[in-house]
Amino acid sequence: MNTDWLELSIRRVPRVTVFLGLAAGTLAALLLDPVTGALVLAGSALAAVGFISIKSFVDKYLQAGRSGFWRRAVLFYSLRLLLICLIFLIIIIFFKGRVLALAAGFSLVVVSILAEAVRNLANIKQWKA
């Protein structure tokens, strides 16, 4: 099976996420205030970094197949989730009313994945049964 299109899509998702975050952050900075715009951009950048780290996590640990890697993989993934929670906690503490701006930027990764899915579906020439 040819997975070149899949690999290209996976590489494009973080870039599209940051681009969408830049556009949304600029719009939020112009309409609301610069701090909100910066938080939207920071959220999209964190989402892009998270997507890249998940990809490397899957490539390194889950495809390795050895049982010794599973404990280390669970540990690293738990630390990753803890880091994300700590970042949100810091934003909540320092920017009480603006945590939704960071969450909006962080959720732009979903829009990027959806855009890639639509793009790949549009490129399919024929459906297989």
What does this structure look like?
The protein is mainly alpha-helical. The protein has one domain (4-120). 84% of the residues lie in helices and 0% in strands. The chain contains 5 helices and no strands. The protein has helices at residues 4-31, 34-62, 67-94, 99-106, 108-123. The model has no long low-confidence stretch (mean pLDDT 82).
User: What would you call the shape?
Assistant: flat
Characterize the biggest β-sheet: none
Number of domains: 1
Radius of gyration: 17 Å
- What's the order of the H and E elements? HHHHH
Give the CA-CA distance, first to last residue.
Answer: 16 Å
Q: Strand content of the residues, in percent?
A: under 5%
Catalogue the unreliable spans: none
